[in-house]
Amino acid sequence: MERVGVKDLKAHLSGYLDLVAQGEQIVITEHGREAALIMPISTERRAINRLIEVGRAVWHGGKPKGLDKRIRISGQPFSETILEKRQ
Length: 87
Prior knowledge:
The protein is α+β, with helices and mostly antiparallel strands. The chain has four helices and three strands, in the order βααββαα. It has a single domain, classed as YefM-like domain (YefM-like fold, 3-Layer(aba) Sandwich), CATH 3.40.1620.10.
């Protein structure tokens, strides 16, 4: 994992983005302290973006609002299953 200061990041941004595109993570420091992390887009996010591109999903940037009322789930809630497994 590479570390880079803000000033160096600004001066060489495209080079650092190339590294991230190759799978590297870059820690951004400000006055010697870690301030942020730049990392590649996850495979899950890429999959969601593909679904959006082909019209199979819609997202407007907000948090999910819950299940569609037309969707029925059988069995017990997942949270109860987790609690049972923890015992």
